[in-house]
Each structure stands twice: as structure tokens, then as C-alpha cells.
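Q: Okay, next protein. This is Cell division protein FtsX from Citricoccus parietis. I've checked the sequence twice, so it should be correct. Can you predict the 3D structure?
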Amino acid sequence: MRFAFVLGETFSGIRRNLSMVVSVVLVTFISLTFVGAAGLLQQQINQMKGYWYDRVEVAIFLCTDTSTTTSCASGPVTDSQRQAVQDLLESPTAAPYVKSFDYESQDQALEIFQEQFKNSAMAGTVTADQLPESFRVALVDPEQYEVVNELFSSMPGVEIVSDQRELLEQIFSLMNMASVIAVSVAVVMLVCAVLLIATTIRLSAFSRRRETGIMRLVGASKTMIQLPFLLEGVIAALAGAVLASVTTWAVAEFFIGDWLTGQYPGTGFIAGGDALILIPLLLGVAVLLAALSSILTLRRYLKV
């Protein structure tokens, strides 16, 4: 009986303040969608780090006629210098760090360049002698790049030792920045949602002050009087959280998992199943913020 009464009072309050409740739902939906987007971005960053770091290579570029670095002052790499680099790659000294390596000639480098820039005018202007020979080295542990750099960078005929991880770190830094921006926007929107919930509860309490006065006179408990107002805020916020959860899952499942995976098959992407981890977080944040906002508002504006 009491439960039915509380529910009746709750939905009665929602009907009276329908426009405000809809506003709470929409603002909560938008703010938690940003939270979900930030979570998806962070999951994708972790996924890509695990995917790419296992495939990261170190490129040992050899000197050419056009090299301008001081290490190439003596001219292009000689056969003996090239062989010395290969011998060190195959030696016990490098074995703890080098998983495998491949030699890439200038002609092979040109083929790869032309394939990468086939839609650019640059593809027809670059010749093989302008591109360096290189050894492409897969590391046992990508974190050991500095050791490999020290081993090979000072060898005659070596122009530079380049770590692909540097480029990946720049990409991941941009993605982390986007994640921080999404969280920042989400925080602002959540503050708006909390203020809207507080305003909705305040208006509801004001419009029903006569009913609450009667309930107080007949001996209704403090919890019985305040619970309908509390549930109004929680239900509105929970509705917004459900919409945000569905949106987050749909983005992960259809946009990232289906479309992006189809467009870039060589890259590991998250899918809808990964987004399910975020749903309890979104629902929990909504309920917690709504409950706290409602309780603080009721203490101030509903004296029982």
C-alpha cells in the first residue's frame, strides 16, 4: 500500500513538472553520452596500443648520396658497412632485443612510397636514389628502443635510427586530448543536470506544499514524504542514462565495430561488447548524482 502510494505521488509529480523532467532527461542523456564517448576513446586507445605496440618497428636508415647528417659525411653506405649492420643484427649482442629484421633496398622503398602516395603528384617525382636503404627491425620489447638506438646509431653508414612509436605516441596524445575534452564537456553538462534536478525537485516541492503539510499533520514519516520527490529526480536521470547507454553501445557496435572495422581492416577496433562495461558506470553516475542533488534540495526546501 505504501509502495503504491509512493509511486502514485512520484508519477503525479512527474506529470506536473513534465517539461522540467524532459529537460533533466535530455541534459543527462547528453552529458552521459559525452562520458560514454570518453570511455570509448580510452578503450580504443588501449586497444590500439596493444595492437600497434606489438607490431612497432625500428627503422635503421642507411646513408645515401643526398644524406646531410654528420654521420654520413663520408658518403653513401658501402657494402662492408651494410654487412656490418646486418652482422650486428644477427649477433648475440642484439639477440635479446631483436625479434626479427628485414632489409629494404632503395627500389623496394620506392615501390612502397609510390603505393602510399599513389594519389599524390609526389609519386612521380621521387626516384629510388633519393630514398634510403633500411633495415626494418621488430623488437622483442618495444620499450627497449633506446638500447637498439645506442647499438646502431654510431655505426658507420647509418644515417638515423627511427622508432615508429614516436609517431604512435603523437596520435595517442591527440586521442587522449580528445578524451579529456569529452570528459570536460561531460562535467559541465552533468553540473547542468544536477542544477536542473534540484530546480525540478524544488518546483515539485513548492507545488505540492499543501499535500506535504497534510501528510505531516496525519503523522507520515519524513521518508514517506520525501521519497516521491527523490524518485522523481532519480527516474528522470535514469531515463537519460538509459538513452546514453544505448547510444554509447550503438556507436561502439555499428560505427566503430562495423563501419570503421570495414574501412580499416588492418587496425584493431573495439566493438559493442566493450561498451557494455561502461553501461553500469553511466547508470550508477546518473542515480548517484540525482539522489545526492535531490537529498540536498529536499533538506533545504522541504522542511519535515
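A: Here is a summary of the prediction. The first strand starts at residue 57 and ends at 62. The mean pLDDT is 82.
Q: Noted. On to the next one.
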